[in-house]
């Protein structure tokens, strides 16, 4: 009788452990409403068996607890510097032409290094792509964010802290910056090529660039005004 009870107890324990393993192995997906800084979600993640598919938080300061990487990391900033950077290859061609005035190849490069020729447009687009990637890496600092996460003992979900996190963040910023540069090049390069083909007037070729830069400037001013307005709201508590 005692052996039978022990056997039943062992079988019950095995069944319980097997059911527990199946329960832990199952993944429950959830959407975190009123997420705050994400404490509840982080607790479920560390408990295991839960996957957050999204979050919603109206408080902009609480929402900033999340890494704010977006598809357009630096906005229209590359356009503001691309025109100035485009002067560099022009100066180089003019300098080489001054040193070698009889060189036909240098003369060809100097004649075509302008925004009214296909070569100049392509060079201009390459400059925009390079500036977008460089500014994204410098302004978002994925390496520094990864180091800060490692020092604070925090990590991104399902990614180990340290080098794996750094590789993940750098890859994310790089992919987002490439997508952003392609979109900017389409918006800016399209009118330039249409101008070269005679379909668009020259005065309208740089209109997308002006619109994007003006919009970016107004958005920056609006965000600054929001910051000061929120500071006034909390002034009595400071």
Q: Can you tell me about this structure?
A:
The structure is a single chain. The chain has 238 residues and is mainly alpha-helical. The chain is 71% helix and 5% strand. It has helices at residues 2-25, 39-47, 60-63, 77-99, 104-112, 118-140, 142-152, 163-196, 202-205, 207-233, and strands at residues 28-33, 50-56. The chain has a two-stranded parallel ribbon. Helix 2 (39-47) links the parallel strand 1 (28-33) and strand 2. It starts with a helix and ends in a 5-residue tail after the last helix.
Quick structural overview:
The protein is mainly alpha-helical and 238 residues long.
Major sheet description: 2 strands, parallel
Kindly report the oligomeric state of this protein: single chain
| Share of β-strand residues | 5-15%
Q: If you average the pLDDT, what whole number results? A: 77
Number of extended strands:
2
Strand order of the largest sheet: 1-2
Identify low-pLDDT runs: none
Distance between the termini: 73 Å
What is the percent of helical residues?
over 70%
Q: Helix/strand/pairing class, anyone?
A: mainly alpha
N to C succession of SSEs: HEHEHHHHHHHH
Q: Which outline best applies?
A: elongated
Question: What's the alpha carbon Rg, rounded to whole Å?
Answer: 28 Å
Count of individual helical segments = 10
């Amino acid at each position: 009788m005692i052996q039978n009870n022990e056997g039943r107890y062992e079988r019950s324990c095995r069944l319980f452990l097997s059911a527990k393993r199946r329960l832990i192995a199952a993944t429950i997906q959830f959407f975190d409403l009123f997420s705050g800084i994400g404490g509840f979600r982080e607790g479920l993640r560390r408990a295991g068996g839960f996957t957050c598919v999204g979050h919603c938080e109206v408080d902009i300061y609480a929402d900033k607890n999340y890494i704010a990487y977006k598809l357009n990391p630096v906005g229209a900033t590359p356009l503001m510097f691309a025109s100035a950077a485009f002067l560099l290859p022009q100066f180089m061609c003019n300098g080489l032409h001054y040193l070698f005035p009889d060189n036909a190849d240098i003369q060809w490069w100097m004649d075509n290094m302008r925004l009214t020729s296909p070569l100049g447009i392509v060079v201009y687009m390459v400059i925009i792509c390079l500036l977008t990637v460089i500014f994204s890496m410098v302004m978002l600092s994925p390496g520094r964010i990864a180091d800060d996460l490692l020092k604070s003992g925090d990590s991104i979900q399902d990614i180990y802290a340290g080098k794996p996190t750094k590789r993940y963040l750098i890859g994310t910023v790089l992919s987002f910056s490439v997508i952003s540069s392609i979109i900017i090049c389409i918006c800016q390069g399209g009118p330039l090529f249409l101008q070269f083909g005679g379909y668009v007037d020259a005065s309208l070729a740089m209109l997308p660039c002006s619109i994007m830069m003006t919009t970016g400037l107004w958005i920056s001013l609006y965000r600054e005004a929001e910051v000061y307005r929120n500071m006034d709201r909390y002034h009595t508590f400071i």
